Amino acid sequence: MKQTIGLIVNPVAGMGGSVGLKGTDGEYYKKAMELGARPVTPARTKDLLSHIRKKESIELLAAPGAMGASHLHDASLPFTVVGTVSGETSAGDTRRIAGEMLAQGINLLVFVGGDGTARDIYDAVGMKVPVVAVPSGVKIFSAVFAFSARAAAEMVDEFLGGARVAEQEVLDIDEAAFRNNRLASQLYGYLLVPNVRKYLQGGKECSNVNKLAVKSKKEVAADILEQMDPAVLYLLGPGTTVKAVADAAGTSKTLLGVDALADGRLVGVDLNEKAILALFQKYEKRRIIVTPIGGNGFIFGRGSKPFTPEVIRGVGRDNIMIVGTRDKIVKLEALRVDTGDFELDQVLAGYMAVTVGYKETLKMEVRG
Amino acid sequence: MKRPVDLSMNEMPFLPPAAVPRAAREGLLKLNRYTRRKDLENLKERISRYAGIPEAHIIPGPGSDFLLREIIHGFSGGRKVVMVSPSFMPTVEKARQFSTKFVGLRLSPPQFSLNSDMLLDELTEPALVIIDNPNNPTGKLLLDRQTVEAVLHRKNTFLVVDEAYYEFSGVTFADLVPSFPNLAVTRTLDKAFSLAGARVGYLVAGELYLDAFASFYALLPQSSLFAAMAALQSIGYMKENVRWIAAERERLYDKIAQLGAVVYSSRANFLLVDTKQPDIATKLHERGVLVSDISGQFTSGAIRVSVGRREENDAFIDAYREIVEIG
Fold it and tell me: What is the ipTM for the molecules in this complex?
């Protein structure tokens, strides 16, 4: 049976790179044009389309013009145009057309762009439909992206072959900060991505990477569960590994929020600082369970706003439990903190243990 | 298609001297026989002379990784195993499988240095510490004498230093073995002595390890045993090859750096390169060059490149340049 796939291309993604700009958000797109930037997405899109093998299994819906349809004329792939655009394309067009495709019942959404495009797609479809993300931005930090257009084509084929899906991070990169050589990113959300990675050498090990990641999360959760003390208040930060701890404890967990667990049950959901401090009145012993953001390694200061300096001080350095899957943790240079409180950052700096499996830890440098 | 250039296994690209395969053939003529104790004693004596350590501390075996595995089997029960991360993967996997508790001390770029306080802080309970020095895949020396002695003075701690690349680094702690019963050093003839196909390693073992290996009968095949004995008669040849590789490593380092990749200085016969290109190993393979893809232990785009013959290294550089230029 054919699967319906939507295609959305951000025609301006990646244009800043060749002219030395870091991203094309907002007015920087016009600046890139003035500097003579040329579109990079057509080549990426062509590469993607020419390497999808199971074309006969696809019913394709494409965004209009440069956002999709104009790349398809020599791709020998019939398609139906969804939505309209007038004049220059915008983030709003991406969100609107993605929403229309979702309403038409797509099975998979393929998009070409960068971190900004991933955020727009997340806003429009969330985790309602899996996506394949083709990298075409200046800098790509979000884990949702395939390595290359060809790798993305393989992911499409694997999806058509029945591959399972898993959540991957979408990051919110502050382009203004990035232009000043600061990497200021926050966890923005999660998209569902086919659970496939292709390598050649070491293929045997790596083809199992994602299966191992799921197993690894369970092992981490089992280890943490064993250490849990019913008298302690556990503040669970965002992320899928932390969620695995809640799953193992038999409770639910918001993926992006901070939830609280005590004596095996949820005592707070999607908490803000005030609500956490209120819980401190009731619980003397407290611990935080966090996972670093993929790519940059932040444990505090990005993606977990309720963990304010006051909350972290109220818990104490020794009561911070860091968890993560081995394959994610080994890709980090170091763990990072940026709480906005310089003194606290210095207290947190040094070395901390990350639980990466059952009775298995990695001691990592924490940079303030 | 041309035969691929293989720079993935940290082998010596040169054959051993002619006397070595001749000796191996001599071993093959005894294929119906197990190795004899006197031949093994002879090998131990030659290793002892080469390493400058009394024979009583030398235990030969089929590859140093095999000896490491024996130690993990024998000494990890009821102990925490402490290693650095990244490290030699087969040893890490074995340790994770057998240890009661496993702690990896993560080495951070760009220095990849081992913080000795972080290491010593872990030694508050019975522990088996295994550290490769130089480290594979970073090529960095991680230990100094002060740290090694501090670890050895800790109660209920065993230390194993894997010196597979000792001949390239020139740094060893084997001389401490007679004074510290809880120290063992593993070495190999696979690398510097051009004997990867023979698989001969040895343990320089402290008193506490010797008991565990008392009934250990070396499982060396006849051909490997005789090849090893001959190789240890040609130390000058080995040293010349090591000197050549070290000089070529620096040339390769410069060439890679010129192409814009992050390459780390090394004290072994390989280089760690961060290309920032996620599928670089695949792209190189498509161009007939095999390197070790270590993106599973590092950032995507990290590879370990062995120093090969000059034309092999140039083939790698040409292929890499082509990939960089295509973008």
Answer: 0.91
